[in-house]
Amino acid sequence: MASLIQNIARLAIHTFRRDPQLSPTSYKAHYDQLCDLLARLTPSDLKIDPALLVDRGRFNPNRDGAPVTYMQIYEDLDLTICVFILKRGVRLPLHDHPDMCGLLKVVHGMVSIQSYSFIPENNSEARNGDPGVPTLPNPQELPGHTLARTPTFLHTQVLAATKHPTQTITASQPACQLSPGANNLHEIHSIDGPAAFLDILSPPYGTDERLGFERDCNYYKEVRSPSTGSEEDVNGQPAVFLYRVETPSDFLV
Questions:
Q1: Integer Cα distance of 69 and 175 in angstroms
Q2: 41, 4 in Cβ contact below 8 A?
Q3: 137 vs 174, more confident
Q4: Distances 221 to 146, 159, 161, 177, 243 between C-alpha atoms, Å
Q5: pLDDT for 61-107, tens place per residue?
């Protein structure tokens, strides 16, 4: 009999394959079923070494090595499935998921997630007359993942974004979701001890052989509005600016 992670992987492959014949209704049904399976996932299902989850107190690089452990479970042209293990008090820096759908399921400990969504209209205007940015779809509208390329506004250095309320997520809660147009950037901190979570991302980072471009992971720093020095209100939600930076020096995997 197949294990839970095997069933999750097979369903994820079926859900996120970029098949133009996959209807929105079928996609939504598969996606919901995948979320249900993820709700049952535990560290033992992932064969995580228990030693990686032992709380040794505040992270010490001389004693603990890298602050983050990465396990790749599966990858093909359409998706990647992996696990991140964060030691106490460390973070995944603020980063993006260009054109991706994603599911993040905490399986051990507790994390704090600060998410953002790009504001395409504002970023389009900031390009001084470049063509408008296409509307980015929600997961339910994305069977087959037929996006043509990375939106032009993602190539700029300073981007307007909506800042969402910080979430505290434990292993008892459902998987967090991101789409090309919502919650597509986030920073993740472990809280009160080590934390582990499974990521399913589609399409994966790297060379997209189907669409013919490189999908990079970009890192950002939040900055306040250049005009006011503070958060501004856009459509009833706080807006900030995100400045693209080099990979943070404290991010070691």
A1: 20
A2: yes
A3: 174
A4: 30, 10, 12, 22, 5
A5: 889 989 999 999 999 999 999 999 999 999 999 999 998 999 999 99
